[in-house]
Design a protein that fits this description.
Largest interface: A-B, 43 and 37 residues
Number of strands of chain B: 5
Number of strands of chain A: 9
Helix content of chain B: 25-40%
Structural class of chain B: alpha/beta
CATH topology of chain B: Rossmann fold
Distance between the termini of chain A: 24 Å
CATH class of one domain in chain A: Alpha Beta
Order of helices and strands of chain A: HEHEHHEHEHHEEHHHEHEHEHHHHHHHH
Strand order of the largest sheet of chain A: 5-4-3-2-1-9-8-7-6
Helix content of chain A: 40-55%
Strand order of the largest sheet of chain B: 2-1-3-4-5
Shape of chain A: globular
Order of helices and strands of chain B: EHEHEHEHEH
Oligomer: heterodimer
Strand content of chain A: 5-15%
Strand content of chain B: 15-25%
Largest sheet of chain A: 9 strands, parallel
Shape of chain B: globular
CATH superfamily of chain B: Cobalamin-binding domain
CATH superfamily of one domain in chain A: Methylmalonyl-CoA mutase
Radius of gyration of chain A: 23 Å
CATH class of chain B: Alpha Beta
Number of domains of chain B: 1
Radius of gyration of chain B: 14 Å
Number of helices of chain B: 5
Chain lengths: 544, 142
């Protein structure tokens, strides 16, 4: 969303006659000219120094660039494996697995709710056999893999460990991320399965297990991205996400975790849309807020456990179908904001994502966008090049205040679990979505090619059309049936029974049971059914 | 056109907004629901992950004039066909069905062939969507 120029609604009297004052998409006033802050006393700290406004590393990207991580996956494991190998051959440095909705919601591909969705928005992984094909020929000791998975995150993580076992890769060498953030699923993305409390337990179990078994793996990526894409402003995105982060820290503490240890493996994930300075400054502000919270509220001493590490996705709902090639420019600008904000990994959306799964051509172009910024533009050669700018520092301060205000609002309401279970937060985001839509409809927010500079003879052409292989879901089901026919029913039942018993015992960590289930070729749907039998399902609060 | 939003062109009409399948993107569904409600309709929203059978049953029980189906996962063809079949089976084939989401142009003819009265994507103005629904329900704009 762009900065918009609507005057504040509350303007009365003479103020109403003045020209409108610009505000950012987070509602922060934008000065015509920023000047030195006369109240500033301390000079800004160096990069890598608490509270890390200028970055968590003293050498920024000069030591290591961000990870180029393109979200990808569709159809069968074979097709997705082929796309991954293509992207790695083009210089991508990490994998990001998109999973289909049945896998994300815990259904087997033959279930009636699942059938029409198999392989549509990602790859189907129903048993270890699919994962074996997906990672064939990929060196898991060298390539880091990120999974956008939440409701079934612990299961998919267990499956990844089982694949690594099969490859003979020591678990401690594994790097990557599982999103594993259920709280925002209840708010914006919708792939919840279990109620809040057992979901938090499952997340805490996977994080604590990962800290010991796969110490280089990020077992959670606390995500604001989807809430922002759905309607929340950048300040709200950060405020809601940091509040969710605190809820996870509290849960991990309750389950006996040591914050000095698990704190080092917490990571975050956000969207960048078209308000450039809101994006740059929301990251600078959130780094500072998180470090202070970790040190002041939890007494964290180790700097690594105070670090706010985050990945970014550029594009999403800031991209439009009208004149789709314009999206390439949008993603370029957004990527620059992510780099200037200090992201650890970046996913650049392809220009055709508003209406289809990217083609190989558009996916490559999106990756090239990052590479041009990294290797040609020179903006990554010095750390936090915006640091010390009157405007950037002022906007970072104001963004920090705006984020803290959002966090206080949630606290005042009773905390994140309360705002989610009551449906308050879902409703707030829907209202924001409506405001955003109304501003675009009215032209208050300019979207070039859609509500401005439209051509009368505008073509809807966008190049190559991506078509999913209509036989893909059939092949998914064939492998699923074949696996069920050849596995040992007794071994599966043993593993599932153990899982069910562990689920009923709050003191037990579920991860070893899940890894055993995966090795026995139990299906995702079977594991979820056993957990549901103990925990029930989340009841969505439906409020308009 | 911009004034239509503020007129209760859908007063007295009952509309069900539904999310069939597993897709969790509900922003479009909610934004449309709010816009239709502001135009005077009584709007019922199902929440996420409903089967075509469930949606048809609610549509009949609630005696709605129209059902809006929101699908962004690419499964719109199957899910819309199944929902319309369930409505017909329940003897409620006269209930109008409209569709919103990520719908490629190539699928428009198929959906219209099923009897869908409107197909709406995210770039359309809300007032155009409201006017189109009103038109399908044969409501004369004031």
């Amino acid at each position: 969303m762009t900065a918009q120029t609507t005057p504040p609604r509350a303007a009365t009297g003479d103020e109403a006659l003045l020209p409108p004052k610009p505000v950012s998409s987070s509602g922060i006033p934008i000065p015509t000219v920023a000047t030195a802050d006369p109240t500033a006393t301390a000079p800004l700290e160096a990069p890598g120094v608490y509270p890390f406004t200028r970055g968590i590393f003293p050498d920024g990207y000069t030591g290591r660039l961000w990870t180029f991580r393109q979200y990808s996956g569709f159809g069968t494991a074979e097709e997705s494996n082929q796309r991954y190998r293509f992207l790695l051959a083009q210089g991508q440095t990490g994998l990001s697995v998109a999973l289909d909705l049945p896998t994300q919601c815990g259904y087997d591909p033959i279930e009636s709710m699942a059938k029409s969705e198999v392989g549509k928005v990602g790859v189907s992984l129903s048993t270890l056999a699919d994962a074996e094909v997906l990672f064939e020929g990929i060196d898991l000791a060298r390539i880091s893999t990120s999974f956008t998975i939440n409701g079934t995150a612990a299961i998919i993580y267990a499956m990844y460990l089982a694949v690594a076992d099969k490859h003979g890769v020591p678990r401690e060498k594994l790097t990557g991320t599982i999103q594993n953030d259920i709280l925002k699923e209840y708010v914006a993305r919708g792939t919840w399965i279990f109620p809040v409390k057992p979901s938090l337990r499952l997340i805490a179990d996977s994080i604590l297990y990962s800290n010991d078994v796969t110490p280089r793996f990020n077992p959670i990526s606390i995500a604001g991205a989807h809430m922002h894409d759905a309607g929340a402003t950048p300040a709200e995105e950060m405020g809601y996400t940091l509040a969710n982060g605190l809820a996870y820290v509290d849960e991990l503490g309750r389950r006996g975790g040591d914050v000095e240890k698990f704190g080092k493996r917490l990571s975050f994930f956000f969207y960048v849309h078209m308000d450039f300075f809101d994006a740059v400054c929301k990251f600078r502000a959130a780094r500072r807020i998180w470090a202070r919270l970790m040190r002041e509220r939890y007494g964290v001493q180790d700097a690594k456990a105070q670090h706010f590490r985050f990945g970014v996705v550029c594009g999403g709902s800031s991209l439009v179908a009208a004149q789709p090639y314009n999206n390439i420019m949008r993603v370029t600008i957004e990527t620059m904001a992510a780099v200037l904000g200090g992201a650890q990994s970046i996913f650049t959306c392809a220009y055709d994502e508003p209406f289809q799964i990217p083609t190989e051509f558009s996916a490559e172009l999106a990756l090239r966008t990052q590479q041009i910024i990294a290797y040609e533009s020179g903006i990554a050669r010095t750390v936090d090049p915006f640091g010390g700018s009157y405007f950037i520092e002022q906007h970072t301060d104001r963004m920090e205040q705006a984020i803290l205000k959002v966090m206080k609002e949630i606290d005042d309401y009773g905390g994140v679990i309360e705002v989610i279970e009551s449906g308050w937060l879902q409703r707030r985001i829907a209202e924001r979505a409506r405001e955003r839509k109304t501003k675009i409809d009215s032209g208050d927010t300019t979207v070039v090619g859609q509500n401005a500079f439209r051509r009368a003879d505008q073509s809807e052409e966008f190049g190559e059309v991506f078509r999913l292989d209509p036989q893909a879901s059939q092949r998914v089901i064939e492998r699923y049936e074949a696996v069920k026919a050849r596995r040992s029913p007794a071994a599966v039942e043993r593993a599932l029974t153990r899982l069910e018993r562990a689920a009923a015992n709050d003191g037990e960590n579920l991860m070893p049971c899940l890894v055993d289930c995966c090795h026995a070729y139990a299906t995702v749907g079977e594991m979820v059914q056993r957990l549901k039998s103990q925990w029930g399902e989340f009841q969505e609060p439906v409020r308009l | 056109m911009t004034a239509i939003l503020r007129l209760p062109v859908l007063r007295g009409r009952r509309i069900l907004i539904a999310k069939p399948g597993l897709d969790g993107h509900d922003v479009g569904a909610k934004v449309i629901a709010l816009a239709l409600r502001d135009a005077g309709a009584e709007v019922i929203y199902t929440g996420l992950r409903k089967s075509p059978e469930y949606i048809a049953r609610v549509a009949v029980d609630e005696d709605v004039d129209a059902v809006g189906l929101s699908v962004l996962s690419g499964s719109h063809c199957e899910l819309v066909a199944q929902t319309i079949a369930c409505l017909c089976e329940a003897g409620a084939g006269e209930i109008k069905v409209f569709v919103g989401g990520t719908i490629p142009k190539e699928d428009f003819d198929y959906l219209r062939g099923l009897g869908v009265c409107g197909i709406y994507t995210s770039s359309m103005h809300l007032d155009v969507v409201v006017a189109s629904v009103a038109d399908a329900l044969a409501v004369q704009p004031a």
